[in-house]
Amino acid sequence: MTVWDQLVGQEPVVNQLRRAAAGEGLTHAWLFTGPPGSGRSTAAKAFAAALNCEVEDVTARGCGVCAACRAVLGESHSDVTFVRTEKVTITIDEARELVAKSGDRPSTGRWRVVVVEDADRMAERTTNVLLKAIEEPTPRTIWMLCAPSPADVLVTIRSRCRPVGLRLPPVADVAALLVERDGADPDLAVQAARAAQSHIGIARRLVHDPEARERRAATVRLPLTLTSVSQAVNLAEKLVKIATDEAASSNEERDAQERARLLETLGATGDEKLPPTLRSQVRQLEEDQKRRAKRSVTDSLDRTLTHLLSFYRDVLMVQLGSEVEAVNAELAADISEFAAKSTPAVTLARMDAVNTTRQRITTTNVAPLLAVEAMAVSLI
């Protein structure tokens, strides 16, 4: 499997990046944009791997099997830096460190690459720190910024980057990938791909984790029981608990894998007592995981609200008489009954309330439960 095979349903993007990796139209700064689940970070990582691929044939770079490709995909290549924040924003000090590192010449690879996965989580003052480095980079440095849309990045940065626009892949393509790569049951793969709204990462989790499927099913059914303020408060508590449980489940698996990889790198096993020098590295990993846990709850709550939004999206489609395929086809009868009790204007207002709450919890330090309670009351 090459690095490009991960980009499901993104043939125009793959062709563009393949040509650039071969030297046609290669520039020093790139801006990858697309909705959540479109694979913008995956595309940037695949491009970084292709740029440093060891294959001699330039048209075949991005093989996915050479040492350089495997190192980039495993985020262990010395010349490729990945930046993602566990906090609400990337700090100005972190941006300065990036600028300093970007000035180094590549040590083993063809290019030094800096991939900023959360470019939309930088304040204007922080983004300005990167401006000169992106405008006048060192000869062997390439910047890759990732954001949901071009509007999420300052125009001064945007104008200096080559755009790469990704879209959500079709449900059928996501389902086919889950069957081919993960051995998923075809019917379950289609159901998961539709429920995830073509978000490959979420679809994969829904396929492999029955509890995740149950949590999502509970989320989309919550509006059916919402008729009073007390029920709204209960709904808010359930949504936050669902998000917290989802984050804990995801973190537990990832934390265990990270610890196992670190111990393997250190040449130790989980049972033996580590010397002080090695214990400090394990302790640092545990502290990093604790910091990430807080951010992961926020991200999980955002995904939970996205699932909730899919319910109102289906309601709106019924109210408008659209023949677009429903996300929650298993709730068709309930959704039709719910849709008959309101108007498209009311449904749009409810969707706006959900989206506003998503923005608050991902861009501010608002208490999640308070934000969700306010949203739930407005959904009555």
Layout of strands and helices, then pairs:
Layout: H1 11-21, E1 29-33, H2 40-51, H3 67-73, E2 80-83, H4 92-102, E3 112-116, H5 124-135, E4 141-147, H6 155-158, E5 162-165, H7 171-182, H8 186-195, H9 200-208, H10 210-221, H11 229-265, H12 276-319, H13 332-339, H14 344-363, H15 368-378
Parallel strand pairs: 1-4, 1-5, 2-3, 3-4
Helix pairs in contact: 1-2, 2-3, 4-5, 7-8, 7-9, 8-9, 9-10, 10-11, 10-12, 11-12, 11-15, 12-13, 12-14, 14-15
Helical content band: 55-70%
Q: What's the N-to-C terminus distance? A: 49 Å
Strand line-up of the largest beta sheet: 2-3-4-1-5
Low-confidence residue ranges: none
Average of per-residue pLDDT values: 88
Q: Give the total of beta strands.
A: 5
Radius of gyration: 22 Å
String of helices and strands: HEHHEHEHEHEHHHHHHHHH
Strand content is 5-15%
Number of helices: 15
Please, could you describe this protein's structure?
With 380 residues, this protein is α/β, with parallel strands linked by helices. The chain has 15 helices and 5 strands. The chain has a 5-stranded parallel β-sheet, with helices on one face. Helix 10 (210-221) runs antiparallel to helix 11 (229-265) and helix 12 (276-319) packs antiparallel against helix 14. It starts with 10 loop residues before the first helix and ends with a helix.
